[in-house]
Automatic annotation (TrEMBL):
UniProt protein name: Phage protein
Disordered as annotated region, ranges: 1-29
Compositionally skewed regions (Basic residues) per UniProt: 1-28
Organism lineage string: Bacteria, Bacillati, Bacillota, Bacilli, Lactobacillales
Superkingdom of origin organism: Bacteria
Length: 66
């Protein structure tokens, strides 16, 4: 298993901070599985497993300052 550092994405960071409460509430009302913990396992188990391994074996530059 290889440990590595994730490259921070400014574009994704801004997107995450600017997606407002109203937009999330609207999506949650329309899409049944939106925002539910563990929904990724039901939707695409292979991708969810891959993401879990990636998340556990890498770290962010921001983790160094914690």
């Amino acid at each position: 298993m290889k440990l590595g550092m994730r490259k921070p994405s400014v574009k994704k960071s801004i997107k995450a901070r600017t997606t407002g409460k109203i937009k999330r509430k609207a999506k949650k009302a329309v899409v049944p599985g939106y925002g539910k913990k563990g929904a990724g396992w039901a939707k695409n188990p292979k991708k969810a497993a891959s993401n879990k391994v990636y998340k556990k074996t890498t770290f962010s530059i921001f983790d160094l300052f914690k």
